[in-house]
Write a sequence for this structure.
């Protein structure tokens, strides 16, 4: 029987160099899109999919992430006394069930593969989800929920992919696929950050994965790859042919919030979309465009 996905790994130990100096003392994952930090979008995406156990792999200066999901007793009391019911509700929504989150440290940012490997004892031998919180995805059902459903069907690993312009392949893990049917295709190869001329396709991995625990056996080798980092893509590539491994073409919205422009796009797009902010945002943007 296929095992349901219960646990998610959230790697949040990167240095966030593209956002310096903002990320000097604050984690990139606490950057705010409209009024919620990136990490909260990722956690909510999991909760929507029924995944409610979390392993955060963090590093130095990441304490704010842990506090964000804690019960904020004094703040909540003050909001209650001031009769700020909507604000209180928003604050209370940003919590995780007691005992359902573990924070472990990567200690050295040796790469995404190493960060995921740091979660191995907390995951054990069951399939699990990985979400990169600097990639924001919005869809119903959520992207990770769609991957979990695909895993239910295939019993194997599944990663979300999207087409990118060929000149951008050097920023992503790229998958080669065959036999695509209803948005699901068998993966035949995977390579991290290939040059456009070497890329086997333009299908980029967008930071959403459901993986079988066998990936830890490969990560145990600590092999370095592109950029001298221990790459998750390299470990996943070794699983191809041994277990079912599929790419799911994701068609929902996705914002690369690890880049400044993608982050800006997410803020504008989501504020134009949300009922409570859309009218004012539209008026503001129109005013700014007039110059
Ligand atoms: P990025 O490639 O975006 O790296 O990592 P980064 O350090 O966060 O940001 P830049 O490129 O310097 O601006 C993708 C994801 O992998 C995590 C990051 O936290 C992010 O969620 N990561 C990366 C780790 O947890 N550990 C690592 O060693 C590397």
């Amino acid at each position: 029987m296929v095992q349901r996905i219960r646990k998610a790994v959230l790697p949040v130990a990167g240095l966030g160099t593209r956002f310096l100096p903002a990320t000097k003392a604050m984690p990139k994952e606490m950057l705010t899109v409209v009024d919620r930090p990136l990490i909260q979008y990722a956690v909510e995406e999991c909760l929507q999919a029924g995944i409610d156990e979390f392993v955060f792999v963090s590093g130095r200066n990441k304490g704010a992430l842990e506090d964000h999901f804690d019960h904020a007793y004094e703040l909540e009391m003050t909001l209650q006394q001031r009769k700020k019911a909507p604000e209180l509700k928003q604050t209370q929504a940003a919590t995780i069930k007691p005992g359902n989150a573990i924070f472990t440290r990567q200690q050295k940012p040796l790469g995404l593969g190493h960060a995921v490997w740091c979660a191995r004892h907390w995951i054990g031998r069951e399939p699990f989800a990985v979400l990169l919180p600097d990639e924001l995805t919005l869809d119903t059902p959520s992207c990770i929920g769609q991957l979990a459903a695909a895993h239910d069907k295939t019993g194997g690993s599944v990663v979300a992919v999207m087409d990118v312009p060929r000149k951008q392949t050097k920023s992503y893990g790229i998958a080669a696929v065959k036999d695509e049917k209803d948005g699901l295709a068998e993966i035949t190869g995977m390579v991290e950050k290939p040059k456009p001329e070497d890329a086997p396709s333009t299908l980029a991995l967008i930071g959403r994965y459901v993986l079988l625990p066998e990936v830890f056996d490969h990560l145990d080798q600590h092999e370095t790859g592109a950029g001298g980092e221990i790459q998750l893509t390299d470990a996943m590539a070794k699983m191809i042919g041994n277990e079912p491994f599929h790419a799911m073409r994701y068609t929902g919205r996705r914002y690369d919030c690890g880049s400044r422009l993608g982050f800006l796009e997410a803020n504008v797009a989501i504020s134009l979309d949300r009922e409570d902010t859309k009218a004012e945002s539209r008026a503001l943007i129109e005013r700014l465009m007039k110059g």
Observations:
- The pocket of uridine 5'-triphosphate is lined by residues 11-18, 28, 57, 106, 109-112, 114-115, 132-134, 258 (CB under 6 Å).
- The two ends are 61 Å apart (CA to CA).
- DSSP finds eleven helices and 13 strands in the chain.
